[in-house]
Every structure is written in structure tokens, then in C-alpha cells.
Amino acid sequence: MKYFIEHKLLNYDGSQLQSLFAYKNFGLMGDSISVFRGSCRVEQNEMVDMEDVLAKDWIYSEDMLHFIVEHFDMDLEKAIIRQRLLIATIKEELEKFGVKTLSRSGDDLYEEDKKLSVSISTLSPVSSMIHCGLNVSKLNTPIPTIGLGDFRIQDVLGFGESVAKHYCDEVLSMRLARCKVRGVS
Amino acid sequence: MKYFIEHKLLNYDGSQLQSLFAYKNFGLMGDSISVFRGSCRVEQNEMVDMEDVLAKDWIYSEDMLHFIVEHFDMDLEKAIIRQRLLIATIKEELEKFGVKTLSRSGDDLYEEDKKLSVSISTLSPVSSMIHCGLNVSKLNTPIPTIGLGDFRIQDVLGFGESVAKHYCDEVLSMRLARCKVRGVS
Amino acid sequence: MKYFIEHKLLNYDGSQLQSLFAYKNFGLMGDSISVFRGSCRVEQNEMVDMEDVLAKDWIYSEDMLHFIVEHFDMDLEKAIIRQRLLIATIKEELEKFGVKTLSRSGDDLYEEDKKLSVSISTLSPVSSMIHCGLNVSKLNTPIPTIGLGDFRIQDVLGFGESVAKHYCDEVLSMRLARCKVRGVS
Amino acid sequence: MKYFIEHKLLNYDGSQLQSLFAYKNFGLMGDSISVFRGSCRVEQNEMVDMEDVLAKDWIYSEDMLHFIVEHFDMDLEKAIIRQRLLIATIKEELEKFGVKTLSRSGDDLYEEDKKLSVSISTLSPVSSMIHCGLNVSKLNTPIPTIGLGDFRIQDVLGFGESVAKHYCDEVLSMRLARCKVRGVS
Amino acid sequence: MKYFIEHKLLNYDGSQLQSLFAYKNFGLMGDSISVFRGSCRVEQNEMVDMEDVLAKDWIYSEDMLHFIVEHFDMDLEKAIIRQRLLIATIKEELEKFGVKTLSRSGDDLYEEDKKLSVSISTLSPVSSMIHCGLNVSKLNTPIPTIGLGDFRIQDVLGFGESVAKHYCDEVLSMRLARCKVRGVS
Amino acid sequence: MKYFIEHKLLNYDGSQLQSLFAYKNFGLMGDSISVFRGSCRVEQNEMVDMEDVLAKDWIYSEDMLHFIVEHFDMDLEKAIIRQRLLIATIKEELEKFGVKTLSRSGDDLYEEDKKLSVSISTLSPVSSMIHCGLNVSKLNTPIPTIGLGDFRIQDVLGFGESVAKHYCDEVLSMRLARCKVRGVS
């Protein structure tokens, strides 16, 4: 499990949620988490969550911190548990930056009724994938939101790296935890 | 996914981490989380974590709030991700009770260097299982600990029920999240 | 596992065998069985069974009772065992309506050499899917057939609901059966 | 998938539901169904179904036709779907012998309220296993039963062979069905 | 597991690495290995290995012996282990023909720095697939190569059949090996 | 994937084929291959291969080079493919030491009719395991054998390390190979 921080602006339109994204773009081979910053605008035909499609929801944010995670297994249920853990990790990481007012509701983070995040998990033909975007700016979003800017996170990509590093460490520690127990009856 | 709150004292000695624990003891059929209160003393021969066995660690607490989770699949990696999410959930639930000083390190919860929890995941011949114990009292533990008593959680089993309910809700919402996305390329 | 009975006519042309069919059309989230009535005409390019494609078989029926089942796992062998069980269930359900002359041959139902059913199982990118169609009318089919009309099943969708309900109940009871046994040596 | 008919009497006491039963006893390597005849008496400590253990049910029959199925995968849900299909197959095979009064309820066969069968599925450390026993005699059973003797099945093992052959054929045909379809979107 | 030897020339352009290739072309149902001879020219848009795509490598050989393997499970890691075993098998088979100068490096065969083979594994929507091509001629290849012609393999398809037969036998013997062991603690 | 070379004598009696062997004995956490030297004597009650038990074969060698591999997944078919690849790797590694007279037959290595190796794969409750032993001495074996001593392999453990290193490298390269391909249709 490796991570990569892309320092160039990269706008997210949904097409990034594709197998081998990190390998093709950043040369990362194997399980990975990619971090970058850019706007977020996903049109209906790129949406992965059919609930949003049916509700005709749309996703827009002027400036987001994006995470794209790829695990090379094909268990969507597992990807979704990992996604929840990633969201919990982001909340915990923000606490280290002094932000203690957030609550997690499934794969969403809120400050009261203002939404910080968007997130989705799905399968590709060869892997499972997670996208999570955190608002940096809360301007012009279609619903009430809050952004990392409101929390005075100055080094947005640096914060992203903290999350990525933490997630990678946790994946490794979970791998080891899997390898040190005996079975029970 | 169902939960059960056992109101009678039930001391944990490791033998409870056994397949069908909730069914045989509380009549719960299917994925479940059982909650009970009692001491925790696990002898070496009941220990599941070989790291503890090799380190000759021992586990003792006079009074703990216990969770035993059983999922009827046999993917230990998935069980361990679920375990981490359960621990994150316990931390989040404590925040609702005003406890905002905890940090999660893998499957452990700490207030500074004082440990609140013990936890382990493993496989049975027919399922995967998680045990998590939270100190109620911090007396006489072999390492520095903190307990729910220190956080003025009066209704310990009531707190346990909040966690159990939250975990059940999250398992259900993850199941639904798995069933509403299209694949990507 | 839920079912839905669509009372409006819906002709089957193969494109309905698509992931999230029940969610997108009927709002059913999770494992599901959808029941509807309409003609059945599947062109070669929509055919899923390569044996039929190679044999240049075509599928046509003026009026069929259709079942579309979706399970959110990706084990095609399991889908095919479920498909056989669904076909056995349809036969058993017809027996309750007094039809005792059918025999099952794999995933087909026959009265002597007259075919009652068509059926196929396959994988989508996120699930496994089953289609089964039962002739209501036997008119103009390319091979000798029999239809529910010949069995004096008046309430065709009502019969479909009996099957769907039975299948949902069986999936639930199999889930519970999985969760109450110990392993053997 | 092979079958073996044991012509010598072999009483079932639960210990036969063990991995490699067919290989160790009859030399069958690989997925198999073994058929034999003998009494059935399973004591509590050999019982696999915890529901029976909790209910203090006991299983006794003076003379049964037994099937032991072993599949060398370790998916208990799949084993249970296969078990249901085996029970449906037994009912269908009895129909060919003129017995048209049975109904299937999950993994049980009944004539009205008289039970013909007992059955269980579970996992071994290397495989999944199914036992099914059909009463030949209905004498001295702890609950109301019916037996193959009541249906004038004279050649009990011959009937068992029909079932075994049919089950083997179906496993093969399901394997082939898995290998001839394209995926859908 | 069956094999088929196509005696007509069949040039490989990457489009052959498609689910049900053997069934649609040669009528083989189930796990299979197909053997044929022809040129090999895979354009970038048909390439499966993103490493080659990123490196702008291209694959060309005037005359190759091709193997296409399809297994009807969807475990890419398993497919890759099988692929390595197939390559080891080809080397071993060549040894029987007196060729003892080859070494295997992962999924490649070399004589010193001259490459004999190209190979790739991937997933289709319903199966896992392997392609392996062995140069017959070493003329005009983009990198230094060696060919079966240099080893005086006269009957190229006959050699292919030896490999295919050996691979089929090994798959069968591995299946049996899986079915004759007890578990350990 | 890590390896460990135990330089102290360690006789193999079958009890070493147990989950967490490398962790408990050598502190290796995660997938591993352990290498040691010692006699090999496996009594019937420790035998894992029921074919040997039924044939009343026994396994004895005065001096062997042993490999114990543990992978923390529970797919016995995959373990057996890995075992075959390990055996092929041992043969290839011996070729680098100038030994070119061996042939592989499944999971056995022979020089003509003299057997160099014993090997078995099985499941533990939490992992899959492989044992392979290569005769160093051919003295007093119950069947005709050949030993590494006959091949003038002086540094037996050094040879073992070459194999272990090669196997670890191959596991890593297979992991990467799994993570760089797109799916096909």
C-alpha cells in the first residue's frame, strides 16, 4: 500500500474513478491511495451512485481535496467497510489538527448539518475503488457545506498526506493483525 | 444483524469467543453483537493473539463492558477491518457522551498513554468473531488504563447498547451501499 | 431479499437483465426478485447464453410471466444453483395450484416434451442475475411449448407473487440455516 | 462428482459427517455423494444443528436411506443452497416412482404433517458437507414420520442410486452452465 | 479441463483474449487450453498490460505458437500463479525435447538474453484468462529473441499439444490433491 | 513475504505443519517461507495426506532440507498451485547449481525413478500451508531416493536460502503482475 501526492491541480469529474488510475497517472503499482486537489463536478452519466442518479442529485464543489483508493481485490462489501474506516480516519486526523466538531454518519462527515465530504465505493473489472472528496471551499455547493478552509487547514495537501499515510499504515497493521491469531472453536 | 444486552454479570475468560456464542446463550440467530459486563481474565491457553502469548502478556480487568461480534462469513481480513470500524464507532459514540479526549491507534483506544480497550478478531470454523472489552474500572490492571467510570458513563450497559445499535445500523447501511452502485471501467 | 410485482405490461427483450434493474425501475435496494408480465423477444445481440447464439436459437413468446432475480454477490456457480432451486420452487408452487404433470430438467420445466420456461443466469459487474420466463400463452413459439394458461392459472401475477414470496422466504431460511451449525472435523 | 452405493448396512451416528468420508471409506476422490442404509441415532454431542441441541431434540430412525455429500469448497451458504436442491431432487425422483403427495419445506420433505427426512449441512476444515436421511421405516421415531416403505419403494438403494446419479448429473450440468454465458452490464 | 489444437493458421492480435474464446471458436465448454499458430501483433489499444502501454512497448512476432487458457473462476492472483506454472511447464516440456538451455524469469522464458515468450493474464467478466506465445521464428522481432525453430522443434503444434496435455493433466492432479488432505491445527 | 533460515538442526515430524509456525518459532509475521535441516519422520497420526495413510505409506529420511510455507489466505486450490510452482522453482534453482537431470511430476522431483522430495499442502484454521522436504542423504529411505548430497550441493542451507529468496521474489512479482492489467471483455 503506497500513497502519492499530486501537487498539480487535477479536477475531478468522475472519470478518475477507473482501474489503474494511480498506476497510469502516477506510476504506483499495487494497492494505493492518491491525493490531489481540484474542483469536483460529476455529471449524471459519470455518477456511480444510482441513488444520486435517481434523485437527480448532482455533485459540485469549487475546490476539494480528493482521495482515490484502489485495492486489488474484488470484494465490494470489503471496499465499503474500508471506505467507512477511511472516513473515520479522516475525522480522527482532523482531530489532531484541532477540529473536534465533526460527526461521521456512514460515509459522510458533517459539522452539524453542513456536509464536509462526498464519497463512493465501487468495483472495476480488476479491483475495488473508493473516491472521497473533502470541500476546501464551501462556496457555491448545491447543499449546505463546510470546508477545510473553515477549519484553518492551511496546508491542504499536507493534511491529505497525513490521512494517506495513516491509511497506508492502518492497512499494513491490519494485514499483520490478520497473521498472528489462532482460530477458535 | 441483531444485538443483545445481557443484564446479568458475565465474566469474560476467553471461552466466550466461540462460534454461535450469541445463539447458544441469547438465542440470536445470524450476524450479531452481544453486550455484557463482567471481569476480564484470559489465561495464556485461551489467548488468541500469539503476539500476547509470545510476550507473555496477560489480560486482566476487574470490570469491563464487553462486545462479542459474530459475522457468518469467513474472511479474517474483513473481520479485522470491521473491528477497526467498531473501535472507531466506540470512540465516536463516546464523543456523543462528551468524551473528546480519546485517540484510536489501530484496534486500541487511549487517553494519552492510558488504555481503555482490549480487542481481538479471529476465525471460528463457521464464522468470524470480534471481542472488544472496555475498562469500566481502571483498578489493578497490569498496564496503565482508563475506564468508562472515569468518563462518568453511569449507565454502562446503556452506553453499550448505543454502540451495538450504531454498529448494527452501520452494517445495514453498508449492505445497502453495496447494492446501489454501478461498476466502473 | 425483497420482491416487487409490476402490474403494468413490461416486454422482455434481454436488456432488463442488467445490474440494479429492480432498484432503477422499482426502487428495491438489495437482493431482490422482480415479477412482471409481457412478451419475450431476445435478439441474438442481447443473448447471454452463447450456446443459443451458436445454435442460432431465438427466444420468442407472446406472453410470459417474468422473474428477474439479483443477488449482490459475484459467484456465478452459486447463482446457477440458486437458479435451479428457483425452477424447482416454481414447479412446487405450481403443484399447490394443482399442476402435477411437470418435470424439471436442469433449469427447464416441461410437460412431457412441451417447454414451459426459459431461463439464464449470469454476472453483472456488481452482482449475479437470473432471468426466468414462464409462457402464459403457447401461441407462436418456435418450439413446442405449454403455458400457464393451459393450467388454468387465472391470476398470473398472483401466481408470480406466490413464487416470489416463496423464494424470498427460502433465501431467508437458508441464511438462518447457515448461522446455526457448528463445524465438523 | 462421483457417487458410491454402499451395499453393506452402515448405521449413522453423526460421526460419518466428517471430511473425506467417501475417500476414506469408499476410495472416492473429489466431490462425491455416498449412499448407504442403516439406522440413524445421533446423540447430542454429535449433533451439528445447534437449534436441535438447544431444543433437546434427538434424531432417531430404525432404518434410513442416507446420503452424504462432500464438495471441496468452503462456502457454507453454497452448501445450503445445494442441500435444498438435493432435497428438491429427492422429491422429484420420488415423483418418477409415482409418489406425488410430498411437499418440500426448506430442507425437509413431508407428506402432510409426517416427516420423511432429516438433513443438515456444515463445513469441515477442508470441505462442505451435507447429510440427508430418508426414513425407510416410520417405526419408533420421536415425531410423526413417513417412510419410503410406505411408498412401496422396494429397492431402497436403487432409489438412492437414482437420486445420486441425478445429483451428479445436475452438478455437472451446472458446471457447464457456468461456462457458456457472457456477462451483462 | 480440455484442450484443442487448431491446425489452421490463426494470427493473434489481442482480440482472442476474450471470454469464451474456446467455446465460441472450437466448441470447448469449461476450463480449456487452446493451441494455435500464427503471427502476433498487438496494437496499443488491445494491450492488456498497462506496463507495456506506458512503456510504449509493442509486441510483434512473425510466427508464434499460441496458448489461450481460460479458467471459469475470477481470481486473478490464482490465474497469475497458474500462468507461472504454465511457463514452468513449457520449459519442462522443452527439456523433454532436449532443450536444456532455457531459464524462466517470472512469466518469461529466456535463452541467455534472448526471449522466447510473451505472456499475460487477466480477468474477463466471467472468467480468468492467460495468453502465452512462443516465438517459432525470431525474425524481425523488436527485441532479441529466440524461437522454437532454433531448437529444431519440427512439429510445432505437436509440441503445443504436449504442453496442453501436460497442463490439463496437472490441473486434474491438482484438483485431486485438493481433495485428499485433512486440515491441520 | 519473508523467509527465515534456521541454522540449528530441527527434525520434522509433521507437527511443524501448523498455523503460525514461522511466527511462533522465528518471529516472522505474515506470509513466510521457513528453511531448516533435520531428519523427517512422520507417523501415521500426523500424516496429512490421506492417500498415504490409506496406503500405509510412511515417510522417513535421515537428513532433509525442509521448507515450510504459510500464506494467510484460505484457498487450498491456490496453495496447491503455489506448491507446484515451488517445486518447479526448486528444480530451476538446482539447474543453476548444475543439476540438469531432474524431472518434476506434479509435486515430486525425480532423477529417473529416484525421488528427491516429499511435499504436502493443506489448510489450517487461519491460513494455507505447504511442506516440502528434499533428501540430503538417500540412506535408509523406504523407497529409492536421491539426495542433494549426490548433487554435491555442499551448502545445503545456502541452497535453501536461494530457493526461499526466489520464492519470495516470485510472490512479490506475481502480486505486482496482478495490479497492472486491465480487464478484457
Shape of chain A: globular
Instruction: Give the number of domains of chain A.
Output: 1
CATH superfamily of chain A: Bira Bifunctional Protein, Domain 2
**SS summary, helix count of chain A:** 4
Question: Secondary-structure element order of chain A, as H and E?
Answer: EHEHEHEEEEEH
Protein name (chains A, B, C, D, E, F): DUF366 domain-containing protein
GO molecular function (chains A, B, C, D, E, F): catalytic activity, acting on a protein; transferase activity
Pfam families (chains A, B, C, D, E, F): DUF366 (PF04017)
Organism (chains A, B, C, D, E, F): Desulfosporosinus lacus DSM 15449
What would you note in describing this structure?
The structure is a homohexamer of 185-residue chains. Chain A has 185 residues and is α+β, with helices and mostly antiparallel strands. Chain A has a single domain, classed as BirA Bifunctional Protein, domain 2 (2-Layer Sandwich), CATH 3.30.930.10. Helices cover 30% and strands 30% of the residues of chain A. Chain A is built from 4 helices and 8 strands, in the order βαβαβαβββββα. Chain A has helices at 21-26, 50-54, 76-96, 156-178; strands spanning 2-9, 32-42, 59-71, 103-105, 108-111, 114-115, 117-123, 128-135. The first copy, chain A, has a 5-stranded mixed β-sheet. A 3-stranded antiparallel β-sheet of chain A has the order 4-5-6, with helices on one face. In chain A, a hairpin with a 4-residue loop joins β7 (117-123) and β8. In chain A, α3 (76-96) crosses α4 (156-178). Chain A starts with a strand and ends in a 7-residue tail after the last helix. The mean pLDDT of chain A is 96. Chains in contact: A-B, A-C, A-E, A-F, B-C, B-D, B-F, C-D, C-E, D-E, D-F, E-F. The interface between A and B is large, with 45 and 45 residues.
